[in-house]
Amino acid sequence: MELQFDLILNNIGKHINLSDDEKQLFTSLLVPKQIKRKKHLIAEGDVCKHSAFVTSGCLRGYTLDVNGFEHVLSFAPQGWWMADIYSLITQLPGILNIEALEDTEMLMLSKASQEKLYTQVPKFERFFRILTENALVASQQRLIDNLSLTAAERYARFCKRYPTLIYHLPQKQIAAYIGVTPEFFSKMRKAM
Predict the structure, then answer these.
(1) For residues 140 and 133, what is the distance between their CA atoms, to the nearest angstrom?
(2) How do residues 85-132 score in pLDDT, each as one tens digit?
(3) Which of 22, 64, 88, 160 has an alpha carbon within 20 to 30 A of 112's alpha carbon?
(4) What is the reported pTM?
């Protein structure tokens, strides 16, 4: 296998074992994509037709409220998957914006290719079920955290979930993730 596929194959190998032929089929369905910093992979209202696996760079998924405030739902640094799961599964217009926080390279897997994998290599159903279950658990935990934890506790959870991003992201992105203003976040960090 080519080096460009090592990261994604290692990611998959944590959950399922693939033969060389299955790896070849899988990698043949991937489409490399690059996007520049501050460009969108998808925007609210788009139908999500691909899952993206980040090979370098970082994506963020966010929504805008009626007042124009951004609410960051997730980040996808190198080695993470990102999609508007609601839109990808339902094929209805999504509510998520996915933007590159820096120049980002990804491997894209279309929904049609994913369905093809399910038929030709059924163990991929297990892999994507695990990804979906993990995303559901993370989403539920995030909701509970936002309802019950202080901002400082939510920041501690952020640091645990995204240890590689703590000093890498602009403070305003972290503030939007934990649900506070950048000014409050700055004061809170100084107090910590």
Answers:
(1) 11
(2) 999 999 999 999 999 999 999 999 999 999 999 999 999 999 999 999
(3) 64
(4) 0.90
